[in-house]
Each structure stands twice: as C-alpha cells, then as structure tokens.
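Backbone shapes recur. Consider a single case.
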Amino acid sequence: MAGIKDGLVKRGSTWSYVIRVPDHSTGRSKPLWVGGFGTESDAKIARDEARYLAKRGELVGKSQVTLEVYLTGWLEDHAMTVKAKTISGYREVLKGYVIPRIGRMKLQLIQPATLTKLYRELAVSGGKGGRSLAPGTIRQVHRALRKALNDAVEIDRLIPNNPALRTKIPRLKMSEPGQVWSMTHLRIFLASIRTHRLYAFYHLAAYTGARRGELLALRWSQIDLRERTVTLMASTDVIDGERVTDTPKSGRSRTIGIDAQTVTVLIEHRRQQEEQRARLGASWADAGDYLFTREDGRQLYPDTVTQLMSRSVRDYNQPCQPGRRGSPRKALPPPLIQLPRARPARLEASARHHAAHGR
C-alpha cells in the first residue's frame, strides 16, 4: 500500500480515503476509512463530500445494506407515491437488469465506475439471448437507479452522494427513418382497416394524437359531438396482469377538438355498437359506457389494439389471395408503398408531428 496523501491512498487496484470524524463516546476524533473507488478522482470527490458533511454533522455512518436489499425496500415504499405504471417500469428494469448483476454489492460501495461498467455490459449482452440491450432501455435503467440512489442520499442518508449522477450512459441512436408515419402512410393504413369494427379507435389516434390508454378509457359521456370535442380524463393499462386505470400521463385531463369527418366516424361507430348491444341483449356486458369494447361489451385490453394494428400492417404489406378450403393462400404482388412496422404509439406520434408542422 502506498503512502497516504491528503487522505487518499491506493490499495491494490482501488482507491480509498480517510477523514477524521467525532467519536461521541469518547469526545475525541477517530479515523473513518472508505474504499472501493475505481479512480483517484472518484475517491477525492467522495472525500471532499464526506468532509463537508462531517462539518455539518450529516455524514452517514457505515452500513452493510446491499443494493438488492435497498432497491427491494425502495420499490415497496415508492409504490405509494407514483403511478402504478411508473413503479412497474422501475420494478421491471431494476429486477431484470440491475439486481441480478450487482445486487449483492454493498450500497455504499457502488461507484460511478460500477454503473458505467453495468451499462457497458448491458449494451453488449444484456438483452434476450445474450443480445445487446437497446440504449433506450439502458437509459430507463439509469433513470430508475438515479431516482433510487437519490433517495438513498436525501431521505435515507445511507450514502453521501449519488453515483448515478457521474455515470457515463450510452448515447441514444438517431431515430430510424419512418419512426413518424407520413400522411400517405396514415391514409393507407386507415383505408386498409376501414371496415373493421375498431376503425374509429385508429382514426381517433391518428387525428387527435391521443394515447392508447387514454382512448381505451374514453367513455361516451366525454364526447360532445355537437361541440366537436373529446375530453381525455383517464388512462388504462394492464400492469402485472391486472387492469389499472389512472390519470393521463400528464397528470391532468385535456379537451381536444375534432373535425366533421371524425364526428361522422364516431356517429357510425356508436350506431354499430348499439346494434351489437341490441343483438346480444342480456349477454352484453355493460362495462361502463366505453367507446371501445370487445364484441360482448367488455373493456378492451391494450394488447388487442396493438396486435390488431401489427396484423393489419403485415397483411397489407404481404397480401394474399384466399385459397379454396384445404389449399394454401396464394401470395399477391406487394403494394408499391409499404407501411413501416407499427403500433398505436406511431399513430399518436405521427398525429402530433403533423399537427406541429401544420400538415
């Protein structure tokens, strides 16, 4: 071990610092050693922070709590303060990518270099089947860790500073071409699905920019056809197998104007829904006057509209001629304009993009 210089010393491949702190049992001071830093710079920053906190009487004591124990408790406590979908996202990335890899480390030994290495490993082989994990997902991991470790500093006083604030994270790649559909793509898709009973869902998504969950929580009482408005007051999703309805992503309701064509689409959608209700009679499940339901009146699952859109895009891009019973379908020439792979979020993003650009 090399000599101590200004409270810093290198022990093997890592750096440590030592400061003197009050010992309230004796009235004297005693040395406090903290190690495990990947670089001299990290140790120096932590030493300066510890000196500052010691002067203020806020220096944290030693703790044997592991990152896994802390994150597990944090998820339980944090669930009471944020939306169910938010905590579900935190739980998915922390338990899926962080805890299995560095969960056994002591919380107080987590350094910026620890997290940088974690993100690098995830980028190389953190995905399914050992494939690389998308930069966007790694950023989700980083956001969850940053929030949890900030609470470990500010609320629980278990660590002196947040290592996630000085961590290098992968750069996001430029959005792929076609991430926003053109007006031509929108028109082609809507025309291809025009006869489906859920056509109105995709029309509203494309012409209002409303999110999938907002549309699935929409009730007829929130539609004013005379004033041509739609009021989005809630959002529904399925989290851990259970349907959850909450406020919209923004945290507040909003009213959107609709055009005459959309009014016509909604009138036709309601007519078809009322006919189906009359046909089923007592078998119709009156789930709450929702705009978009299953064929028996029960509330739709979010995956239903996502899978239907993916199927419709695939069928449009790879048309087939129906064969006779027992014979295979015959492939037809593909259309001149192909639709990019999509989900309802693309309709929402496209609607907002074209509205912002006056198209």
Remarks:
- The beta strands are 8-11, 14-23, 28-37, 223-224, 229-232, 235-239, 242-246, 254-257, 320-321, 330-331.
- The longest strand covers residues 14-23.
